[in-house]
Amino acid sequence: MTNVLLVRDLKVEFRVAEGTIKAVDGVSFRVPDGKTVALVGESGSGKSVISQAIMSILPKPAHITSGEILFFDPEKPGVFYDIAKLKPDSKEMRNIRGGRISIIFQEPMTSLSPLHTIGDQISEALHLHHKKTKQEGAQITVDMLRLVGFPEPEQAFHTYPFELSGGLRQRAMIAMAIICRPALLIADEPTTALDVTIQAQILDLMQNLQKQLGMSILLITHDLGVVASMADEIIVMYHGKVMEQGTLEDIFRSPEHPYLKALMRAIPRFNMKPGERLTPIREIKRDADSKFLEQANPRPILSGDEKPILKVTNLTKRFTTRKSSLFGAKPAGEVLAVDNVSFFIRPGECLGLVGESGCGKTTLSKLILRALTATEGEVVYNDRGRDIDVLALTGDSLFDYRNKVQFIFQDPFSSLNPRMTVYDIISEPLIIHNVGTAAEREETVRELMTLVGLDFRFLRRYPHSFSGGQRQRIGIARALALKPDLLICDEPVSALDVSIQAQILNLLKDLQAELGLTYLFISHNLAVVDYIADRIAVMCKGRLVETAPKEVLFANPVHPYTKRLLAAVPEPDPNHRLNFANLVEEKASNPELWPAPFTADLHTNPIMMDIGGGHYVRVHENTDVTELKL
Amino acid sequence: MFTYFVHRVLVMIPTLLVISILTFVIIQLPPGDYLSNHLEELKSQGESASAMAKIEFYREQYALDKSPLEQYARWMGFWPGPDGFSGLIQGNWGQSFAYDLPVKEVIGDRLGLSFLINFSTILFIYIVAFPIGVYSATRQYSIGDYGFTLIGYLGLATPNFLLAMVLLYYANVYFGISIGGLMDDKYINQPWSFEKAMSVFDHMIVPVIVIGTSGTASMIRRLRANLLDELQKQYVTTAKAKGVPRLKALIKYPIRMSLNPFIADIGNLLPDVISGSVIVSMVLSLPTVGPLLLEALRNQDQYMAGSLLMFLALLTVVGMFISDVLLAVLDPRIRLTGGATK
Predict the structure, then answer these.
(1) What interface predicted TM-score (ipTM) does this complex get?
(2) Any long-range contacts for A381-387 (C-beta under 8 Å, 24+ apart)?
(3) How far is B321 from chain A (nearest CA, A)?
(4) What is the CATH number of domain B110-286?
(5) Model-wide pTM > 0.80
(6) A113:B239 CB<8 A
């Protein structure tokens, strides 16, 4: 078998003010012709630096100190280039870059220029490497847009990136990368920023294109599920070194290296035994007898039929879009963000809320927090036996309600004020709610820090000196400061690395048990929700479509949307490769195209029907329950 | 796009109206007015019947003995005076009491020359700031970057009038350009000719540099900061990864992005340049409107001051309009997503 790329003993150093950092330290691997090689590792393991070295687009402080990157162009047999020796601005390198080797980046939102149409940006790559007239270029670009699955390629040519969804932007990015029919495509975390369903579509597209164009793919990812579905060969990296490499089968059947084994144990899987814990690569050391636990006053959790802690009935939120004309703005249309949603959460349980981005999950959580005002509906919060009508709260009573329900944000980077110290951040809720004296507050903040496993000597530092996982723990400590009973976690781990993800999930689980907390856990990652939640609610286009205890939902999903969502999750197991044939395009997330009795359109409005065992599905009235269970 | 254009034009009308009201109120704020002061002066010198009659005539003409509302309406031309509708919107700028001439005649050429100087200054700022800003950003922390930064800070810190005198001295010593004014004395009140234009051009160099330095310095800093931000962005790497040559990638993507604040500044720059030029104009004795405005405000020569202020306001509003339209042309996000709220 011939190789397209051969990397031998590559070393890349970053020379920065603090000294020299060995980002890549003696890495050797190959990419065979027409195959997919996956480069796996945590962030900071040097995998992206390798991709930059291959493209010769390393940032300024980075230098290749030794080793070679040999590129064998299949179109010119016998000729090879050593990219490590070529000058980044040389003509040969510019021909290779974008022409013979191209790259897709992680962030489809920022990797396209917002000021140029996608047609312009895609055809630019073509014109740089091939002599074509403007018309030919436009025609090829439109063909390419059709190939990557744009519904209306002619119109799409003239659209700007900000007019497209994340999935379509990533498709445009792929079109740009493959328009010159490269020999090697580097995909740097191509689906990390996308939903599972979109991820499955993009992966499917990449595989199809690989077959059609006969190119090789170097797939860089930290998601072992994606790897199991895509790769032929795997390279596992840690701290700039290769830990293990081999074929897909070898690696997954018999992982040799302790790092790889640890990585596999840190990822939530569907087939985990009840009560099984994830083992993070680096465990957080927590002070188990933090004084905070003693004074925490956890909500007593009674077994049996206690009233739900939160009951949401027919909650609806409409946003009006405005269109401005000569004579001021006027309402132009309505977007139904949350449509007649009803559910409840029992005290002490964790309800997982699952759905694609844009389905209204976050809007729903903000309605419960009263950060947004609901259009219709009712939210009743049960404050240890006293019912509170949340939507009617005003003034002082609303202020008190904020004590009881707190929020953990998705992005640990933007949710902490960079100009406040950790102490200020965690004590701010206490100051706002006027809890205790200054000395007592300081005591509480110290205990909160130890509770989430951070050293209280860090209190004078600013957020930028912490890693993503540590920042998320600061966010958790802040949310816990007021001793709430209900915590709403909005994708708390989706911005974190796999190894960190396990830490945070375990921390949340422990805190729930110790402090008697109730969680509403929002996520698009079903495996994560499976790990932490007791019951799961599936949301699509502002509606709940199915709620059930998690065992029931995973064993017997009824709604077509739930089924599709489950099918789209890549499992870290080569025997359960994603079955791309099952993934019907957009259809499953369009309520009008759901088959009867699930169809929801202008004429029919299905209701949530109890099909037994706490399992609710949105179907037409008068549907036979026994039929559904089949 | 067309609706946006029309919308922006229509918005200018109420804006200017509000400015005119504010201007009028502020001019009226100090106690007394030019005519009363003048009257007192005349009385103390012994009356002159013709002067008294003239004052009476102006009182009648501009409704100075009536309510401020009526005065305003007459000044603007919303209300008919003895000559029918005759105010700013009809093109009558009123009378300068201090010069005892119509405002239009006092200002005369100065308006055009002011416009010329200010326009040249802005052009100068852009032409100088743009390449230096781009250079500083792409060669961050190089000797050139530090050098320009130092010069920029000096430009910001040096008082304009001082710089003006220094430059004037050297311009006179080395190039023989006469001190002060916008043209050699021999061309004053002469018809326009090629030599006169050249003389004006020679004399403009010093004031343009002097008025423009601080604007240039801050513009360089702003462009450098913007471009540095943009250079970090992912789409720049994307362009590089496509194989776009460096210079082309720089011009097509990050520079285009960092133009936004550059253009948005047109409107802000105008009043800055104009107010900054008043003192310089005094020092260099330039025949611009700046010194006239200062004098008019001191004398409470209300129609003179009002007309000049309205002229400056008009320049600013038009500048803003131009920058808004240019921004919409340049940035599809403004063009296509404008007006939608969430």
Answers:
(1) 0.73
(2) A381/A309, A381/A310, A381/A405, A381/A486, A382/A307, A382/A308, A382/A309, A382/A310, A382/A311, A382/A347, A383/A485, A384/A299, A384/A485
(3) 16
(4) 1.10.3720.10
(5) no
(6) yes
